Amino acid sequence: MDTLSPRGYVLVTSERMQGVLLLVFSRYSHLPFLREIHTESTRTGLGGYWGNKGGVSARMTVFGHSVCFLNCHLPAHMQNLGQRVEDFESILQQQQFQCGGGMGVLDHDLVFWFGDLNFRIEDYDTHVVKSAIESNRLSMLWEKDQLNMAKQSEPTLRGFEEGPLIFPPTYKFDVGTHTYDTSAKKRKPAWTDRILWRLRATCSPGPTHLPTVRRGLTSWLSHGLRVTQHTYRSHMGYTISDHKPVSATFTLQFPFKVDIPLVTLSVDKEWSKVSDASVSFQVVSSFARNSWDWIGLYKVGFRHAKDYVAYVWARLEESDHLPEPNPATQGKRLEGEGTHPGQDASLSQGTPSRT
């Protein structure tokens, strides 16, 4: 957070299950349009009793479109391909979000799936794989990649897309070096660390892993949601693990945007201390209010929701309402304004007992 906050990012939510950690950050300007945020976790280690393997997820609506982020750590070892697929199916089955009457991971408009997925390279022995890496013949290894092959045969994996694997396998290295495993086990190098995405009701994807593919990869929903991947790379300079980290950058293009805030705040006057602060607020009529709602005062550059200076409980009575968000025109920005003053609130310092 100390690195991202100066760049205008705020921690939206997080979920952790032992060593599996998911952090979702957003630019400050997008925060009013991230809604219905929920997280889930599923243990699959030791038959579901241990969280060393499994998945953690976070879902939300982004400008009116449902997006889910799923971070998984699947079973290791070459021979456990079937177990990896089975665990992934179990994670999908168990993770049901309590929004809109219940929603599974694959029910979202867009899913990002990533993590130490542990898929290996079949058939070739270790020296053949290393030779192919040294001579940059990565395409011959990709053809034997278990995840690539499983996407053709496993119904659960169909529809997931991935950018071209033009970086060397990211596992397994001697810690502190750039040398593939020299231990007695001599693990075969593999692309265990992956980033994929899935659009609901996608058009047929193009040939995404041909060696000649170098430009941004674009996919889209039938109703116009576009995803463009700009980079997909490993960071081979890191040596603190036997894995090398992987990153990807994307652009999302929405056919329409729900960009009317659910809550609008306005400061009534200038003030120099928290005890003198006074604000009014308005909410849209469909916003589900409850007695635990509160308003926080934050410094510029705040890092997360609990990083407030002061807060006040938002009273339920006498609420005024803004016009409903209504994406009537696709592809255009929605605009609206509220004309009635809302409730007044004075801020106090302390800590809400529930957020």
UniProtKB/TrEMBL annotation:
Top-rank lineage group of the source organism: Eukaryota
GO terms of molecular function: phosphatidylinositol-3,4,5-trisphosphate 5-phosphatase activity; phosphatidylinositol-4,5-bisphosphate 5-phosphatase activity
Polar residues bias locations: 345-355
Span list, region Disordered: 321-355
SMART domains: IPPc
GO cellular component terms, A-Z: cytoplasm; plasma membrane; ruffle
Residues covered by the Inositol polyphosphate-related phosphatase domain: 1-259
A biological-process GO annotation: phosphatidylinositol dephosphorylation
UniProt cross-references to InterPro entries, sorted A to Z: Endo/exonu/phosph_ase_sf, IP5, IPPc, SKICH
Xref: PANTHER family: INOSITOL 5-PHOSPHATASE (PTHR11200), INOSITOL POLYPHOSPHATE 5-PHOSPHATASE K ISOFORM X1 (PTHR11200:SF298)
Record family assignment: Belongs to the inositol 1,4,5-trisphosphate 5-phosphatase type II family.
Protein name according to UniProt: Inositol polyphosphate-5-phosphatase J
